[in-house]
Amino acid sequence: MMFGTLKKKMQLNLWIFYIITTLCVPFSGQEEMSTLLPSETTETILPMALPEQINDNIALAVNKFGYKLLLKMMNEKKNDNIVISPTGVAGLLAMTLLGSVGTTYDEIAEALGFSQDIFTNRKNHEQLGELLQSINANVSSKTLYADAIFVDTQTPLRQLYRNYLHDVYRGEILNTNFTDSEDAKNKINEWVTNNTEGQIENFLKRSLPTSTKVALLSALYFNGQWEKPFLPEYTTKLPFKKGKVTVMADLMLNFGHFNFTVSENNDFIMLALPYNDSETNMYAVKPRLPNKLNLLDLMEKIDYEQIDKTINEMTIKKCVVRFPKLELKTSMNLDNSLKAIGIQDMFTPGAANFALMVNGNAIVNNTEEELITRSGTKIEDKESSLIKDMLDSLPNPGIHVDSVTHEVKLTINEYGTEAVAATSAVLARSAELFYADTPFYIFIRNEKTHLVTFSAVIFDPTIE
Ligand SMILES: *[C@@H]1O[C@H](CO)[C@@H](O)[C@H](O)[C@H]1NC(C)=O
Ligand SMILES: *[C@@H]1O[C@H](CO)[C@@H](O)[C@H](O)[C@H]1NC(C)=O
Ligand SMILES: *[C@@H]1O[C@H](CO)[C@@H](O)[C@H](O)[C@H]1NC(C)=O
Ligand SMILES: *[C@@H]1O[C@H](CO)[C@@H](O)[C@H](O)[C@H]1NC(C)=O
Ligand SMILES: *[C@@H]1O[C@H](CO)[C@@H](O)[C@H](O)[C@H]1NC(C)=O
Ligand SMILES: *[C@@H]1O[C@H](CO)[C@@H](O)[C@H](O)[C@H]1NC(C)=O
């Protein structure tokens, strides 16, 4: 092997890097409400505007990953509310994957549903990069996605990794002096605030260790308004049954024509609440008979593919919807859940290998560097397994992931101040009922890319 001899020089000092992600979904802005009346009488049902090409394989892989991650977290934190961003976490892991080799690479690729094959994997990156860029759209709701990598001033990040990251994920690279931990923390927090429209401040409560060499960050921000707002004067305290205990929660009311369905096996019901940008929906899923099959058991029983299939079977129905007003803020460490889905080596000093991200002690010439970063134009000529062998024998720079931190803020409210007179006309006997008065699962999907940007399970809407 070309790099066989260099392997011996494996670094003994351990460098640490952090992957951090931060997200936000506020639906506040009461001031804009008066113009947003539900218009039952004039309602027309328009099909979603979809671009000609959606890479559904990548979106499906990301969504399946997100669903599995959510399940692991539910098992870890029994009956706690959880909010995550599958897209945000997958985006970060993809950037990490780009810099890794060996089993570190294999594990991340496997969990994300990316190919093990180097060339296919490169296409997977390009497609995910495109999807992430296209959710940064110009519509009335606002979805912003941004990546950054903070690198210690002394750390020799591979130039080609920087370039590739920038080309594919539009990732910003910022030099940071992690030895000055207070300054590094402030810089990271400022970046997060900048990229979540000021919604997330003081993201890092404590400084990162001074041994940190790299911190990867992604921020995702979504601000949407319901296409059909809830009716605030009907929001009222009603019982919400979380298992054997009942709490009184503010349940909002909505009615009208919504996409609704009962799953094929009759286990769950699903409702779609559209945002007014005609490209984002929130889907709400709850067990049909929560006393017989609780939320966790339901979610263990099905998978994202089944949910995806059920989405395609939805039809517009007259519905009466009760949905809790929510304000959730979760700050989580994803390490254990990621380990539980098979991403282990990147956390393990010695086993973690980020030879493509950081130029340890390896002396490689340009041709080799192009080859190992898969960015050259001529690499298609080579056997992909040959390149993989070569990559796996690169000297390990001895850097490992210390922690993956994730913060999400989610606010759901009525978004409408004025009532609609003709309530009774819609509360017809034939209406479907979707009462989210027992634990439920929600996810927000961008219909242009099919990426699930946020997902949550709510066990108690009264807990922030
Ligand atoms: C966003 O709007 C700007 C200016 O109106 C336009 O140049 C750009 O192409 C738009 N981008 C997308 C993704 O639609
Ligand atoms: C980094 O910060 C430390 C602590 O403030 C300081 O001693 C050192 O000179 C700084 N290094 C650089 C390259 O600025
Ligand atoms: C945050 O935004 C301000 C104003 O645009 C800019 O000056 C600053 O450099 C940004 N900070 C970071 C860390 O991106
Ligand atoms: C969506 O709601 C916002 C806020 O009221 C409004 O500015 C925007 O025009 C609406 N968009 C559409 C397509 O109705
Ligand atoms: C309802 O769901 C179907 C199936 O997914 C979809 O084709 C249609 O566009 C949806 N309609 C609305 C208004 O969301
Ligand atoms: C780069 O290094 C490899 C082996 O270390 C050598 O075979 C190759 O000729 C070198 N290429 C250039 C352009 O120097």
Proportion of helical residues: 25-40%
Tell me which ligands are bound: 2-acetamido-2-deoxy-beta-D-glucopyranose
Main sheet makeup: 9 strands, mixed
Strand content of the residues, in percent?
A: 25-35%
Counted beta strands: 15
Structural class: alpha+beta
Distance between the termini: 55 Å
The number of distinct helices, counting runs of at least 4 residues, comes to 12
C-alpha Rg (nearest Å):
23 Å
Which stretches are low in confidence, meaning pLDDT under 50 for 5 or more residues running? 1-13, 28-53, 416-428
Task: Please provide a brief summary of the model.
The protein has helices spanning 56-76, 86-98, 102-112, 118-134, 159-169, 181-195, 295-301, 304-312, 335-340, 366-372, 384-392, 423-426; strands at residues 15-25, 82-84, 142-152, 172-176, 212-223, 236-242, 245-262, 268-274, 280-287, 315-324, 326-333, 399-412, 432-435, 440-446, 452-458.
List keywords for this structure.
6-stranded mixed beta sheet; binds 2-acetamido-2-deoxy-beta-D-glucopyranose; 464 residues; single chain; alpha+beta; 28% helix; 9-stranded mixed beta sheet; 12 helices; 28% strand
Can you tell me about this structure?
Helices cover 28% and strands 28% of the residues. By secondary structure, the chain is α+β, with helices and mostly antiparallel strands. The strands form two sheets. Strands 2, 6, 7, 8, 9, 10, 13, 14 and 15 form a nine-stranded mixed sheet that branches. It has a six-stranded mixed sheet with strand order 4-3-5-1-12-11, with helices on both faces. Helix 1 packs across helix 2 (86-98). The chain is globular and about 70 Å long. The structure holds 2-acetamido-2-deoxy-beta-D-glucopyranose (6 copies).
